[in-house]
Amino acid sequence: MADVPLSLDDVHELAFTCLKTHGCDEANANAVAGTIMAAERDGAASHGLFRLPGYVAALKSGKVNGAARPTMRTLSPGVLQMNGDGGFAPLSHQRSRDDLAACARTQGIAALAIINTHHFSALWAEVEPLAAQGLCVFAFTAFKPAVAPAGGSRPLFGTNPMAFGWPRPGRNPVVFDQASAAMARGEVMIAARDGHELPAGVGVDADGAPTTDPDAILKGALLPFGGHKGSSIAMMVELLVAGLIGEAFSFEAAARDNNDGGPPQGGELMLAMDPGRFGDADGWAQHAEGLFEQMTAQEGVRLPADRRYGNRQRTLKEGITIPESLHATI
Amino acid sequence: MADVPLSLDDVHELAFTCLKTHGCDEANANAVAGTIMAAERDGAASHGLFRLPGYVAALKSGKVNGAARPTMRTLSPGVLQMNGDGGFAPLSHQRSRDDLAACARTQGIAALAIINTHHFSALWAEVEPLAAQGLCVFAFTAFKPAVAPAGGSRPLFGTNPMAFGWPRPGRNPVVFDQASAAMARGEVMIAARDGHELPAGVGVDADGAPTTDPDAILKGALLPFGGHKGSSIAMMVELLVAGLIGEAFSFEAAARDNNDGGPPQGGELMLAMDPGRFGDADGWAQHAEGLFEQMTAQEGVRLPADRRYGNRQRTLKEGITIPESLHATI
Question: Distance (Å, rounded) from C-alpha B320 to C-alpha A231?
Answer without folding.
Answer: 30
